[in-house]
Write a structure and sequence with these properties.
The structure is a homodimer of 293-residue chains. Chain A has ten helices and eleven strands. With 293 residues, chain A is an alpha/beta fold. Chain A has two domains: 29-112, Rossmann fold, CATH 3.40.50; 139-273, 3-Layer(aba) Sandwich (Rossmann fold), CATH 3.40.50. In chain A, the strands form three sheets. A six-stranded parallel sheet of chain A has the order 1-11-8-7-5-6. In chain A, helix 7 (170-177) links the parallel strand 5 (159-163) and strand 6 (187-191). In chain A, helix 1 packs parallel to helix 10 (271-292), helix 2 crosses helix 10 (271-292) and helix 6 (139-150) crosses helix 7 (170-177). Chain A is globular and about 55 Å long. The termini of chain A are far apart. The mean pLDDT of chain A is 96. Chains A and B meet through helix 5, helix 7 and strand 6 of A and helix 5, helix 7 and strand 6 of B.
Chain lengths: 293, 293
């Protein structure tokens, strides 16, 4: 069993991006500039946005954090988005989700200029992904493809089971891995809450991507010897042996699955750290595309 | 074995649309108006467009055929599209594919206003489909969903194998049938040219949608008893017993598969006739949405 080390891999990607940025600076070019809009003071959201800003600093990007109060109206948020769409200084930007309940998330995502939508959530980017056209891939699926590639895991013709049909992980993952691409050309089955006899699918799978949000759901008796496991889940599980009273667990029962796996992502330190690295990659890509125009 | 009669079903759908249109006319409302752009004189394309115009007449739609010579430049075609985008008389329009080789198909499809894109090929519509948001569904997958619904074929929790990953049939079919919807909630596997041990997938499938463009590829020994078969293929196969020297065949070997099937689409007369009916449904939908605005 070998760990798919997302922390190390994301570090390598960030180093590569930093090299490109320092080249840009040598050539007197402005570095890429990412903006993030945060509405409200949700703790997790503040942590995520903070980590993104810090990652920008690390690779030499410029970053702007637009911090709006929780009672911001949809109208004002849409005006901020419009400003960023038209600000030639900004290469890409994100609106940190979830948004307060009085704001229509789809309306907000739709307002972002697809050419600056480095989260890849705009319908036009999702459509371009589905049609296998150049686009910004959503960060989590993009990070998983990158992990599979860098660990040279063969996917062509393999039996892949994607568990969970969310718009940001399961669905795009199932589409991407069956396309003609690196880390693609797989035979993909998308399983979900309505699937009957789930184990019949997972037991024959060569690669399983688990993104269902139920801690330690996938157990050792549900997988075959040599399986590759990508665990997207991360939840707090009560644990009396820990000082703070909990530990972080994935959607996979690591103790029973890892002995049978050829490769497996740890939680934490697997898929999670890849996400921010891929957001930076998308921002660099946005910058480079603007340059070409 | 029961035939999924696309000819009869599409006739019923057209009758339903005609009723809605005559209600509109009673209320002094303009009927829906579909425009079609045809570039060049390709025989099959002319036949298809002709059938679409005829179907419009049948249900009481207005229709406009814009017939451009084969040497039309991309620039002129884009200007025609722009005109239709801005013509308040036109509810929806299509550009008949394929286009002459000197024209960039993606550029043309992207130029169509997504709100008038009744073929559902614009990236924004494809993205909205993938995200399960209101959109125009592409006609062939839409027609298959409608057939499954009207014949009350249970899909929830069923093992569905979609054969072929084309942008206009296989890919959207695989997405739609695994979404939470009527004729959805299935466990879908998308198989394609790189799939290993194809029969292992097809032999356990409850429903198989075949869209690979290889005549009579799926044989009786590749399916289980009671399977539901949707055959999207249609090709001419040499046949000395026929006057014109050929017969029409699907991607399924009807003689060996139909005795095992619970339901099966004939070729011709299955999926084919549904396509135009769904284009009309999309045009009616475009008209109704514009009314709301």
């Amino acid at each position: 069993m070998k760990l798919l080390d997302g922390k190390k891999t994301s570090g390598a990607i960030k180093d590569e991006i930093a090299v490109v940025v320092s080249e840009m600076q040598k050539n007197k070019q402005k570095p890429p500039h990412l903006a993030a809009i945060l509405v409200g003071t949700d703790g997790a959201s503040m942590t995520y946005v903070g980590a993104k800003v810090k990652a920008c600093e690390f690779v030499g990007f410029e970053s702007t954090l637009i911090d709006l109060p929780a009672n911001t109206t949809e109208e004002i948020l849409l005006k901020e988005i419009d400003k960023l769409n038209n600000d030639t200084n900004i290469d890409g930007f994100i609106v940190q989700l979830p948004l307060p309940k009085h704001i229509d998330e789809q309306k907000v995502l739709k307002a972002i200029d697809p050419d600056k939508d480095v989260d890849g959530f705009h319908p036009t980017n999702v459509g371009r992904m589905t049609l296998d056209l150049p686009c910004f891939l959503p960060a989590t699926p993009y990070g998983i493809l990158e992990l599979l590639e860098r660990y040279e895991i063969e996917t062509s013709g393999k039996d892949v089971v994607v568990m969970g049909r969310s718009h940001i992980v399961g669905r795009p993952m199932s589409i991407l891995m069956s396309q003609k691409r690196k880390a693609g050309n797989a035979t993909v089955t998308l399983v979900h809450s309505r699937t009957k006899d789930l184990a019949a699918y997972t037991q024959k799978a060569d690669i399983i991507v688990v993104a269902i949000g139920i801690s330690e759901f996938l157990k050792g008796n549900m997988v075959k010897e040599g399986v590759v496991i990508i665990d997207v889940g991360i939840t707090r599980v009560p644990d009396a042996t820990k000082k703070n009273g909990f530990r972080l667990a994935g959607d996979v029962e690591f103790s029973s699955v890892s002995p049978k796996a050829s490769f497996i992502t740890p939680v934490p330190g697997g898929v999670g750290p890849m996400t921010i690295a891929m957001l930076l990659k998308n921002t660099l890509l946005a910058r480079q595309r603007r340059q070409v125009k």
